[in-house]
């Protein structure tokens, strides 16, 4: 399983604290995923 | 300040990303309320998600550690960011975690990958755009 496939199955939180499956962001179209260090 | 700088750089190309049929997604390590405040303060309209546990960053194999955060290169990056007007705010997330950029397609292929080696090591957004 490649990186994207692994990442697609993990969950994240949106700004309201709702759980999302990360892979939904590129399920239908490409995604540019910018992983920041933190907010600051 | 590096996060603010990188967000600004990628928001500058957000329309171009959309025009190529893709979506820009910002990911961070802070709590959701930090993400919400950050998004509202900057009127960010692209999706923002958080990974407080760090498992996403671990799976992506992004750099972390004191050495990656306090490298001599970080000073040069800080000078660049401050010169562009960005200021350091309170750290809201994992301070020793570095990030990166991925361009991922629906077939799970990775069209572009950039791993930040040290704090403030950001790719040119044009590289990610070219991968679309």
Molecular shape of chain B? globular
- How much strand of chain B? 15-25%
User: Could you give the order of the helices and strands of chain B?
Assistant: HHEHEHHHEEEH
Q: Summarize the main sheet of chain A.
A: 2 strands, antiparallel
* Straight-line distance between termini of chain B: 28 Å
- Class of secondary structure makeup of chain A: alpha+beta
Strand portion of chain A: 25-35%
Give the topology:
The complex is a heterodimer of chains A (40) and B (132).
Chain A: H1 3-8, E1 11-13, E2 19-21, E3 31-35, E4 38-39
Antiparallel strand pairs in A: 1-2
Chain B: H1 2-11, H2 14-19, E1 23-28, H3 32-41, E2 48-50, H4 55-60, H5 66-69, H6 72-83, E3 92-93, E4 100-104, E5 110-115, H7 125-130
Parallel strand pairs in B: 1-2
Antiparallel strand pairs in B: 4-5
3D architecture notes:
The complex is a heterodimer of chains A (40) and B (132). In chain A, a hairpin with a 5-residue loop joins strand 1 and strand 2. Helices cover 15% and strands 32% of the residues of chain A. In chain A, 42% of the residues are buried. Chain A has one helix and four strands; from the N terminus they run αββββ. Chain A has 40 residues and is α+β, with helices and mostly antiparallel strands. Chain B is α+β, with helices and mostly antiparallel strands and 132 residues long. Chain B is built from seven helices and five strands. Chain B has a two-stranded parallel ribbon with strand order 1-2. Chain B has a two-stranded antiparallel ribbon with strand order 4-5. Chain B is globular. Chains A and B meet through helix 1, strand 3 and strand 4 of A and helix 1, strand 1, helix 3, strand 2 and helix 4 of B. Strand 3 of chain A pairs parallel with strand 1 of chain B, so a sheet runs across the interface.
């Amino acid at each position: 399983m490649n990186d994207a496939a692994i990442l697609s199955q993990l969950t994240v939180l949106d700004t309201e604290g709702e759980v999302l499956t990360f892979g939904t962001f590129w399920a239908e179209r490409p995604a540019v995923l910018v992983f920041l260090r933190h907010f600051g | 300040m590096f996060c603010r700088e990188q967000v600004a750089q990628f928001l500058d190309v957000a329309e171009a990303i959309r025009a190529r049929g893709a979506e820009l997604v910002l990911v961070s390590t802070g709590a959701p309320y930090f993400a919400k405040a950050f998004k509202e303060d900057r009127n960010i309209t692209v999706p923002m998600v958080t990974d407080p546990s760090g498992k996403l960053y671990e799976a992506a194999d992004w750099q972390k550690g004191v050495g990656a955060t306090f490298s001599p290169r970080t000073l040069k990056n800080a000078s660049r960011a401050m010169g562009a007007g960005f200021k350091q705010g309170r750290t809201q997330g994992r301070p020793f975690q570095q990030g990166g950029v991925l361009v991922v397609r629906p077939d799970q292929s990775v069209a572009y990958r950039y791993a930040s080696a040290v704090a403030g090591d950001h790719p040119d957004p044009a590289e990610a755009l070219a991968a679309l």
